[in-house]
Amino acid sequence: MMGQPTELTLSPSATRAVVDESSCVAQEDRFGPVDERRTVTKVGGPRYRPWLEVAAPSDYLENIANSATGRSYKAYAKSLLNIERGTVIADLGCGAGVDLPAYAEAAGPTGQVIGIDHDHALLGHARKNSAHLPTVSITEADIHCLPLESDSVDRIHIDRVLQHVDVPAVVLAEAARTLHHEGRIVCVEPDWATLTIDHRDAALSRSYTHHVVEQVIRNATIGRALPRMLGDAGFTVHAIAPFTAHWTDALEADKVLGFRDVCEHAVADGTLPAAQTQIWINDLMAGPQFFASLSLFVVSAHIESA
Ligand SMILES: C[S@@+](CC[C@H](N)C(=O)[O-])C[C@H]1O[C@@H](n2cnc3c(N)ncnc32)[C@H](O)[C@@H]1O
Questions:
Q1: Quick one: pLDDT at residue 90?
Q2: Could you tell me if the CB of 160 is within 6 A of ligand 1?
Q3: Residue ranges of the Methyltransferase domain (predicted)?
Q4: What pTM value is reported for the model?
Q5: Is residue 98 lining ligand 1, measured as CB closer than 6 Å?
Q6: Domains of the chain by residue range
């Protein structure tokens, strides 16, 4: 069923500043000067955006977790984690904590579930959702510098987080440091170059995907790179599974992909042509048929025993 078309007027003059606030001042030496890292906000440079303006971030994360693809890939990721009674598991970039209750249940009363994120507001939701679970603890930190002892964790879960971080290799090195020698990591990341949106103007659909890859998501093609990056960090990969989400309802797709919001910014920046983009969006929202898809990759790996 198609959703109701919604008017969106795209104007090249409607520029809005989008500032990426993510930086870890304590890690200045490792990542380079903070001011340099903030040049992502300079005019004409990439405008990486951790959140699309389509819903409150906590609602956005819960909607994805409850979608058909979300339920399916998260169940698979959890099976790969193989959580047992007494397992200590860290969820890096836990957001609103959508996965924490299921992990706490699997790890039982002797287990420990540690949710880590740098977003104070999202952690408020995570705390609220797991307040009744004594084995869950929530920590506010930058995952480039984990507040965990070396060899202290049995499992690490990272779900759609490396796409946004400054230096994914540093996060994976931290994961390798904190996992004990029989530890296991499960990462899930999209590959935004796999984004397809069907439209007669296939060139604009291609330009749109190109724009998302180059300007909207910081590490947009990390999905395909996960096996290599895990190998580089000292892990042995033992499972790789693609999951493809697809949408046939434009409004539902927009709630996840935020293409109206992305187009508005792209036209404001002069990255996409205003009139052509307006027609593209109007057709997508009003057309009798809609199709879009995006692939995510679930990759499981372990540290080689010494
Ligand atoms: C797309 S959300 C995924 C949340 C959660 N894993 C889930 O599946 O619902 C990405 C999360 O990564 C967090 N994040 C991004 N960079 C981070 C960093 N450097 N340190 C800690 N958290 C980070 C964001 O705050 C956000 O909660």
A1: 98
A2: yes
A3: 84-196
A4: 0.87
A5: yes
A6: 55-195+219-246+293-303
